């Protein structure tokens, strides 16, 4: 498990491209038959990627979280962004298709990931935060949950947002999670941009062609920077940072938050005319 310590907006002006990528971009989440994990000290979130190919892959406890098993003091939302697969939680199998989300609550002990026979390998993206109580493991199929249509084709940001784990959907302690898909011809995500000073957020971009990139904007609204993000890569977005972007091809992304509250609309909008 890689550890990344929390950063301040005052650090942004002095960072070069390599430093920005090292602190905020997670590049190698999906490696065959491994669990790749990053612990960010922004709201104590863990991001992990699992790509089972030859056999099932168990989720370890990791010494960095000081627990006997991963979910002893944590919860997680897990979205499959690859081929069909199965997540086994304490002996119960959950078939998780592409774009579907499984919430795993505090107290689960044995969690393993597998790809379906004959299918492309599954790619499971896990977003975890500390939890103070237990909620039941719950599966939401792709396209389920609360669906919100946002944006406009005229401004190239027409998108469908599926809320899976949130205050009016699958219950959790902290985690809020869903998937957004851009409509054909739309490339901008989360525009107008916003910050939410009470919650960090992470984006996992997927369904992006190998020769395409998303230009992800981050930083304070008056001191923005950008990251060029490829398919299967994640961006850590501190609470003080905007998070929006433009793709050179169509794409989807998993968004997930943890922090002070679970109110999806608790955000401070930033019109692009006020960004620098």
Structure commentary:
It is a single chain. This protein has 276 residues and is an all-beta fold. It has one helix and 24 strands. The protein has one helix at 17-24, and strands spanning 2-4, 25-26, 35-40, 45-50, 57-58, 74-80, 85-89, 92-96, 101-104, 111-115, 124-130, 138-140, 146-150, 159-165, 176-182, 188-189, 193-195, 199-206, 214-220, 223-229, 234-237, 244-247, 252-259, 268-270. It is globular and about 55 Å long. The model has no long low-confidence stretch (mean pLDDT 95).
Core attributes:
276 residues, mainly beta, Jelly Rolls, 7-stranded mixed beta sheet, 1 helix, 24 strands
What's the layout of helices and strands?
Blueprint lengths: L1 E3 L12 H8 E2 L8 E6 L4 E6 L6 E2 L15 E7 L4 E5 L2 E5 L4 E4 L6 E5 L8 E7 L7 E3 L5 E5 L8 E7 L10 E7 L5 E2 L3 E3 L3 E8 L7 E7 L2 E7 L4 E4 L6 E4 L4 E8 L8 E3 L6
Q: How many H/I helical runs?
A: 1
Compute the number of structural domains: 1
Major sheet attributes: 7 strands, mixed
CATH classification, class level: Mainly Beta
Distance between the termini: 35 Å
Mean pLDDT: 95
What CATH calls the topology is: Jelly Rolls
- Kindly name the structural category: mainly beta
> Based on the structure given, which CATH architecture is correct?
Sandwich
Q: CATH homologous superfamily, by name?
A: Jelly Rolls
| CA-based gyration radius | 18 Å
Beta-strand percent range: 35-45%
Q: How many extended strands? A: 24
| Helix share, percent | under 10%
The arrangement of helices and strands along the chain is EHEEEEEEEEEEEEEEEEEEEEEEE
Task: Please state how the strands of the largest beta sheet are arranged side by side.
Answer: 1-3-4-11-6-9-12
The stretches of 5 or more residues where confidence is low (pLDDT under 50) are: none
Overall 3D form: globular
Protein name: 4-deoxy-L-threo-5-hexosulose-uronate ketol-isomerase
Pathway: Glycan metabolism; pectin degradation; 2-dehydro-3-deoxy-D-gluconate from pectin: step 4/5
Enzyme class: isomerase
GO molecular function: 4-deoxy-L-threo-5-hexosulose-uronate ketol-isomerase activity; zinc ion binding
């Amino acid at each position: 498990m890689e550890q990344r310590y929390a950063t301040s907006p005052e650090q942004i002006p002095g960072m070069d491209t390599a430093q920005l990528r090292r602190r905020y971009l997670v590049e190698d989440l999906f490696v065959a038959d491994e669990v790749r994990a990053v612990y960010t000290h922004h709201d104590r979130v863990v991001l992990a990627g699992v790509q089972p190919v030859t056999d099932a892959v168990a989720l370890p406890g990791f010494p960095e979280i000081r627990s006997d098993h991963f979910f002893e003091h944590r919860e997680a939302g897990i979205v499959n962004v690859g081929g069909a697969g199965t997540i086994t939680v304490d002996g119960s199998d959950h078939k998780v298709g592409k774009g579907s989300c499984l919430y795993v609550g505090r107290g689960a002990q044995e969690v393993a990931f597998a790809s379906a026979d004959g299918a492309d390998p599954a790619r499971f993206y896990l977003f975890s935060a500390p939890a103070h109580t237990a909620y039941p493991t719950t599966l939401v199929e792709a396209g389920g949950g609360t669906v919100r249509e946002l944006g406009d084709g005229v401004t190239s940001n027409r998108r469908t947002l599926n809320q899976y784990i949130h205050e009016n959907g699958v219950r959790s302690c902290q985690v809020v999670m869903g998937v957004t898909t851009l409509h054909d011809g739309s490339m901008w995500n989360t525009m107008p941009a916003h910050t939410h000073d009470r919650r960090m957020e992470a984006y996992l971009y997927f369904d992006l062609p190998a020769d395409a990139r998303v230009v992800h904007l981050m930083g304070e609204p008056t001191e923005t920077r950008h990251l060029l993000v490829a398919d299967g890569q994640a961006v850590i977005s501190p609470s003080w940072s905007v998070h929006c972007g433009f793709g050179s091809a169509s794409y989807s992304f998993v968004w997930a938050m943890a922090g002070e509250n679970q109110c999806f609309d608790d955000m401070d909008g930033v019109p692009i005319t006020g960004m620098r």
